[in-house]
Inverse folding.
């Protein structure tokens, strides 16, 4: 178990190193000059050259990359071109907001997907099961931002039950916090829940035709008891993989939802940094997302071993 974890951790570190080179290289060749953007169109060439020297943009790409990489190992994401402050505190404060939204959306997705996907599989030969499957297909077809706008129209504009935008931290009180969290979490989680529901249905259908399920039925268990006692754990193995992919998709999808609901998360910070040509902030945000995705994959690998004892014996 320890040896497997060590190997996976080394692979994650190697992937992270490769991702840092790719991210830095791609952002270095993006057209435009941050110094000109900061000074405006009326800036003189000498002023632009002085600012480029001050920001270190006149150094070679390789020198700048290794300087930035060395800072990452010490927790230093660099200094913003716009605010001239360290990027790390701003990224971490916005990351907290995004993590709250993503976790809430993932809970919504699981609450929707597990019962609906299981029911659709269990009643696959009946009309109600087919209707549940059709509903999930409809949910997949709706983009997250459109779902957010529809929720705002219904619950914020028409019914006036919830605020249409903004954010409240947990320290501001449970009421304001939850009221601002509900709509973006639903907009982000319902669409992913519809996708996950399809995979849950497929996994449960596959499990229901296994030999051990028929053996359990022959021993006197009802179909529902057989599914709950013996089928769900095995179905969870394949669904766990999709859940990890869904969680990574939620991190990316949160960028759009945060801008729809004006939430001060990583998505809002990323869009603002791109508009201001603040490449240092963009690099930091992208690397934080990469680290989060790699950490999710590592966690899923370990959860496999906990769920499926066959993997433990093989490893």
């Amino acid at each position: 178990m320890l040896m497997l974890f060590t190997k996976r951790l080394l692979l994650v570190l190697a992937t992270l190193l490769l991702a840092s080179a790719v991210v830095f290289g791609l952002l270095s060749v993006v057209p435009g000059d941050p110094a000109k953007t900061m000074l405006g169109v009326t800036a003189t060439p000498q002023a632009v050259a002085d600012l480029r020297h001050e920001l270190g943009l006149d150094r070679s790409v390789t020198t700048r990359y290794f300087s930035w990489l060395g800072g990452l190992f010490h927790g230093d994401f660099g200094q913003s071109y716009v605010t001239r402050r360290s990027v790390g505190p701003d990224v971490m404060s916005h990351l907290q907001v995004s993590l709250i939204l993503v976790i809430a959306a993932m809970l919504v997705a699981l609450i929707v997907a597990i019962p609906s996907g299981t029911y659709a599989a269990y009643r696959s030969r009946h009309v109600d099961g087919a209707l549940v499957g059709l509903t999930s297909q409809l949910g997949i077809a709706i983009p997250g931002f459109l779902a957010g706008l529809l929720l705002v129209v219904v619950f914020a504009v028409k019914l006036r039950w919830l605020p249409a935008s903004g954010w409240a931290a947990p320290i501001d009180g449970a009421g304001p916090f939850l009221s601002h969290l509900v709509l973006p979490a639903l907009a982000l989680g319902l669409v992913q829940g519809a996708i996950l529901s399809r995979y849950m249905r497929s996994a449960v259908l596959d499990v229901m035709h296994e030999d051990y399920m028929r053996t359990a039925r022959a021993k006197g268990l009802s179909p529902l008891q057989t599914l709950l006692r013996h089928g769900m754990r095995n179905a969870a193995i394949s669904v766990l993989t999709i859940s990890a992919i869904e969680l990574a998709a939620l991190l990316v999808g949160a960028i759009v939802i945060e801008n729809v609901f004006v939430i001060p998360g990583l998505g809002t910070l990323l869009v603002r940094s791109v508009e201001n040509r603040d490449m240092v902030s963009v690099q930091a945000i992208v690397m934080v997302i990469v680290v989060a995705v790699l950490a999710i994959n590592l966690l899923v690998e370990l959860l496999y071993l906990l769920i499926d004892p066959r993997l433990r014996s093989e490893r």
In short: The CA atoms of residues 151 and 293 lie 28 Å apart. The chain has two domains: 20-76, 99-314. The mean pLDDT is 81.
